[in-house]
Protein 1
Amino acid sequence: MQFFSSPSETQIVTSVAWANAMTLAVGLNTGHVFVCDRYVHSYRRCFNCHTERVSVLDWHRNGQLLASAGRDEAIMIYDTRVSNALVSVYRNHSGEVCGLKWSPSGDKLASGANDNLVNVWDTAIVPIISYNQARSYVRTRHIPLYTFDQHTAATKALAWCPWSDDDSLLASGGGIYDRTVKFWNIANGELLKSVATTSQVTSILWSKNSREFVTSHGGGTNHLSLWTFPRITELVSLKEHTDMITQTALSPDGTTVASLGADERLRFWRMFEEKQGPREMPNTTRRFDFASFGSLIR
Amino acid sequence: MNQCHISGSEGSYEGGAGSYSSSPQASAGPTLLSSSRPTPPNVADRFIPSRRYMNMERINYILTTEDVWLPEGDSLENAVPLASSSDDFGAPTALDNLGPSLLQEGLAEAMFGTSWDDLHLPRSSRTPDKLEAFCGNGNSLLAPRPSRYRILSFTEAQTRSASIADCFGNSLHVLRVANHFTAPPVRPRRFKPICAGSLDAVDVVGDYYLNLMAWNSDDVLAVALGLDVFLYDTKTQVVTKVCLPIVNHTLRCF
């Protein structure tokens, strides 16, 4: 078996997700999901449950449960600790699933797809399945906790509010014909607010340090927007990318946002201030030096 | 031996009928276990429900006359057992037969702190608020009430909005979420966002449906560029490549 990638027309990476500092999950267009270690040049697990490309991966907060979804419209939940890792399959979408986010407490899973639906699944029963008694038994569920059909385009951008208690607030952003960010109260399934933006919403990031959030956009404007949250006003619009911003990520100290554009640029933004008040750990407030950037990733 | 201690002015009754304390001073503090420790006055050595907030005279009156409803024209003296059995006022006058007199209303106001009509309305015609308060229902904890209605509520009353309360069971939770959009911003923002640097990401797939980047808790950014995954350590600015296997029929999935 070869462990080195070679130029191949049939294999590309379609999704990545970190479980913790060491473990990375990689999804391929062949439907395979690899769980890799950061330093060991091998993979630890390989799952071949999807029949089409794996568009999105997300880890549970315990770093052991992995959710994957993709073009075959099914959401798979794996427990990476056990041999028969596939524990649940959720089938409700009728389009390619492109957004998948566990809630901060890990009790709920939000999924958005190309069928314009946002589903919220109650996943609290996942860790209590007995693997010894039902080794080949996979629980398939078809009925989510909530189904929101107010979006009018594919919904990829999903973000749970990190400071909201009990997973009560979810933000979702619609695609190119929708262009709205909607806020949902997951406690009762109510649409709290819908905010119109100028273009396709490709991702939403909540700030950890302040009551703000960032949306990234495609569809011609290709900008990042910074919004205040309780009264939703757009503070600043950052236009540097020349093509759609496909993905954003927040640094662990909560100050820097990385945006990956289809214009083959990866940009870093000092977006938020450091957390006010007592500092938890001296390491978390370290910032890195971007002055010497200019090297190529590849 | 068990002597009831009723303080006359407030009508509060402490100690309780089920209390085994042998002296009437037991209600003043823990005298059975004569500890030198200062303890709050409400704490007993066993669970005895505190009746500090109960008006025992009023409860007795309500219990004995609760189901009595006066049809129009009926005599008050025959219908109300408390008034007919233990009164020393003599024969009813003609004024009393007409209905609640000024004297009785005044007496009810003075003794029970409520009006005559509230005491003598039948169960069905009482408002639900008063019914809850009379029955000592658990819901009476949630709404603010005058202190004379408080029979079994031992905690402070909490206010609640009626429009939010009926949309979901956990009303305080919903209230907190609904406050997100009306609360003022905490403090104005002084920090202007800047672009802090950029990198080339050659061969990145510009597909809306894919999720090609992730940042972990150790400041390592994973970016999928075409066939490969690169790890960019933002502390040391070192780029490493994740070695992925070639997917073919010999790949073992486990």
Note: The radius of gyration of chain A is 19 Å.
Protein 2
Amino acid sequence: MGRRVFISGLGLVVPHGEDSTSVFDRVYQGDSAIQLVRSGTAEFGSDVPLAVTEFRPESRIPKTQQLFMARASQMAVVAAANALESSGLAQGHGVKQSGIYMGCGLGGAEVLQEGYRTYFVRQSRRGRPSTVPMIMASGPASHISLSFGIQGPAHTYSIACASSTVAIGEAFRAIRDGYLDSALSGGAEAMLNDGSIAAWERLGVLAKSHKSGPETSSRPFDLERTGFVLGEGAVLLILEAEQTLQKRGVEPIAEIIGYGTSSDAFSLTEPAIVGQEAAMRLALKDADIEPEEIHYINAHATGTSSGDPVEIQAIKSVFGDHASSLALSSTKSVHGHLVGASGALEVAITAMALQRGRIPPTATLTNPDPQCDLDCVPVHGREAPGLKTAVSNSFAFGGSNATLVLRKT
Amino acid sequence: MSAYSYLAEVLAEKYDVDEDKIQPEATLADLGLDSLMVVEFLFDVEDEFDIEVPDERAEFETLNEAAALIDELIKIKRD
């Protein structure tokens, strides 16, 4: 039996803002951060529902450092500062020996776009010399290490939509198994540059603006769902071993008790029931609990026509009769899909849901798809004082699946 | 604008170097620029004056030496 691992701090730079309490309250109230944005230019562009993060690094990161940091890295460093502050870990409690476990899909997407603009449009081979170190997907982890003098492992997991869930799971294991006492773990993603959005549009998975308003365009489990809403941001969790936490006398937010991963070996973009089932079963086994002990699932459900019913099927298969008595919701309905940062945001929301005894809703679910016939917590959040154990799912392009199990402390 | 005053301006504005420290005999390392920053700094200078600093000439130490090199390259380009 390994050591117990707790979440002792949260740092958010997300579409709903930076203050974790107000982020949770807005998600719980179904207050959407999604808006219609003109991507590109007036002539050469497109109006797309997006979950943009208002982010001004000016007062938070020294100017010369900003010059060499892509947007994802800047957001990650500010989220890490917020997380360290919220946990109190920075005040001389071994932050130097911490690990950094980050998820990131694309890295410096906007810097890559600028590099190609120089090459193809200006027909010049003279792009910025710092292009390469700025586009690395591992940039956010490196910059957190540099900014806070953290000398443990700084690892990046690039597993599309499951990146930060896997990062948190791997950090959890490293602490549980005694390799580390603490870690900063989560994800960062900032790919709302027009070149990236144009590529996503061509894949046909982005949501169209919904008739009841662009802020309602992300509609997981709903008959009128048309795809997902891309978002951006960074989310860092402070994970700590029980012993370290006790020494510091800090109250944790929640405990992580299980982690499971699997691969579908089926399709690059289509989800598969068996792979998702495997991840959930492995996570429950890892947590050493029965399916009946789960009260709430923060679903991966992004709002695509094929994805949401597959997850419902997988949940039915894993939880059997209990599937109809648990609550599940997709908070992507209000914060969109942050890709490499999405899992970490959803774990943070799940941890706060456990702490507060409040289940956040699938805020836009007004016309449920009969294929999604479980309790998807439509429209309104729910007081749940008995909420003790919850699951957070992330299922990625490429067929990688990751599930975390969290418990109230 | 002379090369020196341009260098001083970029260092102060873009690289946030304290203006009191920007002296003719200061090296870029003295001013807190690491190797990546130096490469980026040279890129700014090359772009501004439409010149290219040959690798073998990028061995200057002080700001004065850098300014002299750039002035020389500008002159070669004009002639």
Note: Chain A is about 35% helix and 20% strand.
Protein 3
Amino acid sequence: MEILLTLLQLFGTFFVIGLFTIGGGYAMLSLIQGEVVVNHAWLSEGAFTDIVAISQMTPGPVGINTATYVGYDVLAGLSGSPVIGVIGSLVATLALVLPSFMIMLLIVRAYTHFSHNPLFEGVMGWLRPAVVGLIGAAAVILLLRTAWTGCTPHVSIVRENMTDWKSWCLFGGAFVASYWGKVGPILVIILAGVAGLLLY
Amino acid sequence: MKEKVSLWRLFLVFSKIGAFTIGGGYAMIPIIEREMRRREWIPEKELPDIVALSQSAPGLLAVNISIFAGYRLRGVKGSVAATLGSILPSFLMILLIAMVFTAFKDNPIVQRIFLGIRPAVIALIAVPMIHMAQKSNKTWWAWLISALSLVGVAFLGFSPIYILLVTLVLAFAVTYYNERRRRG
């Protein structure tokens, strides 16, 4: 009974987080922390920080990874069974995605419908260059910020991307390979991982 | 979009994209650009539109991009297939770590691999930005918008959503005014 109730709470919590996160994964982390650590006290501060660090290192969006991990830990901890933990991670992950799904379907339908409207085309003519700037900003932030501090003083995750001159060589090499060499991004990532293993 | 893409294929391609999206939604853009271009699934001109609208909606950028692209290819079923595909690899990996490999983040080999991957991911994010700029920035005006949004987010700390909102309102006002004047 307690397990079922927690599953429901988990669903509700992550649904609301998915609905109110605007601005991507890092904005989401402080919401998740507020609910999971402070409000429901499902996990300790330290456990949550570990989960976030692992979520950053594994592939996939940080927010999804954190939800999956939290869902597993909360339910497996409560029930002592890994199977129920898996159910918890499924519930948390799907609940997080569901609001985006509903809203994005409306947006993409409107896009399909209006894409030949001159007013819409005119507005997109402004938004496209803005997006170019946003992507550039994402790259600049990742390059220059040596440590990312979480939205609350409790969670601070050091996220050092450029540690020394070797990082800059890897950055330059990856750029040349991808831009001029037309090497696919997946191959670049694999090669960079191998290079990291050899260089450090 | 020459022929109808099968849902299974869509799922597989997006799980490949998901497996190599390391470090947040923007890291997905180079991989999605490459896959869409190679398969001629989505016209290149549409990519910045997908990013703009996905960034404006609540939720995670990578998930929203999958929903959008999946829908453009195969409707609602396509968006379900693409989204499940893009979250499946990380879902399995996180479960594996949570169940058996809890010391993952302190493993020295893992740490060395990531020291190599992180700088490369940043370079990879820059490449589609240049491609998009070449396609959509045809006037000095467009370059000014790009520069302002880059500085606004990277150096002044504005959230991307505010940049898009302000751009949207201005764009709408100017375009509407021009359209009316054109019609007289």
Note: Chain B has a mean pLDDT of 87.
